[in-house]
Amino acid sequence: MFVCIDQTNVVDTEKTYTLKDLETAEFSGTPLAVIGHPIEHSVSPAMHNAALAQLSSNDPRFKDWAYYRFDIAPEEFAQALPLFHQHHFLGLNLTIPHKVQAMDLIQGVSPDAKTAGAVNTLVRGAVGYDGFNTDGYGLSRALELDLGVSLKGATVMLLGSGGAARGAAVQCVLAGCAQLYVGNRTPSRLQELMEVLAGMHGGERAQTFALSQLPQALPERGVVVNATSLGLRAGDAAPMDVSQLPPGWKVYDMIYNPMTTLLKDSQAHGLSIANGLSMLVHQGARALEIWSEAPVDAAAMMTAARDALNLPPHYD
Ligand code: NAP
Prior knowledge:
The chain is α/β, with parallel strands linked by helices. The chain folds into 2 domains: 2-133 and 279-308, Leucine Dehydrogenase, chain A, domain 1 (Rossmann fold), CATH 3.40.50.10860; 136-275, Rossmann fold (3-Layer(aba) Sandwich). The chain is built from 10 helices and 14 strands. It has helices at residues 19-24, 44-58, 77-86, 111-116, 135-147, 163-175, 187-198, 261-268, 277-292, 298-308, and strands spanning 2-4, 10-12, 16-17, 30-36, 65-71, 91-94, 121-124, 129-132, 155-159, 179-183, 206-208, 221-226, 248-253, 272-275. Strands 3-5-4-6-7-8 form a 6-stranded mixed beta sheet. The protein has a 6-stranded parallel beta sheet with strand order 11-10-9-12-13-14, sandwiched between helices. A two-stranded antiparallel sheet has the order 1-2. NADP nicotinamide-adenine-dinucleotide phosphate binds at residues 96-97, 99, 135, 138, 160-165, 184-186, 189, 227-230, 232, 239, 254-256, 276, 279-280, 283.
């Protein structure tokens, strides 16, 4: 998508920019960006630029806003962040692998993001960036809309302990889940997350489990949330065996692949499933609301995301 920033400057928001571009290029107007590594397949630019087109059709304040994609490696991130600030990027979305590392490089941080130890949304301040975490909100909306699951009172089995899992776990406890089981491949990372949860009001409802073995005496209903990156690549195995889950359980995969092995296995066992597309849309809509201080139409972002992924309009 090409965005006309002013009479003389037309930018390609589908291009993947790099640290070198930050050192040499001009980004006029009000730039926003997603930063990750790898990042080429991110649909965030399509989603956000569609929402910006809609915002600017009603409010001229947004006519020079544009959302870019940047491939920034972990070792480049500390150098890149001040350059984004110098170029007046108003907002940044962070994805793999920057959400945790960024905590040490930002100025302020929202209370939930501080607890989670992970940020996915940065807002430009006078001397640096302030951090927020909209992943937990996005997950919560997606579970309600796609699976009819409210986190309040739910039994949740969370797979993973990375940046996304941290946001999800904190959201589960804050929302008042009945029980939270957390499993992760690397025990030390799992323990770090459990220490975070132990410090929260309600954190005693969280306990660990081994991904290779289901927790004992599961209730009839509950939801599995995959927050591992296993499933991102074609041919990836499922992070757990779902065949022993009670039939009333539902399975949500944060990956918007659209069908990971975990979801295929779950569907084969008659479980209700949903992929991460609506979480992506709702975390993105909330980020844009933080930057724009205006209501954002998540439906327009969903349509753009489906288009970018070549999904039919009513895919679910
Ligand atoms: P991250 O910080 O890199 O964490 C990755 C997690 O995956 C860790 O728990 C890691 O376990 C686990 N993992 C990686 N490879 C594994 C394997 N082969 N077997 C078992 N576990 C494995 O990444 P993240 O930012 O949390 O993102 C995690 C996933 O969520 C990604 O797929 C991302 O695309 C997705 N996500 C989706 C949305 C959305 O809006 N839909 C938002 C955020 C994230 P170890 O600790 O053992 O390494």
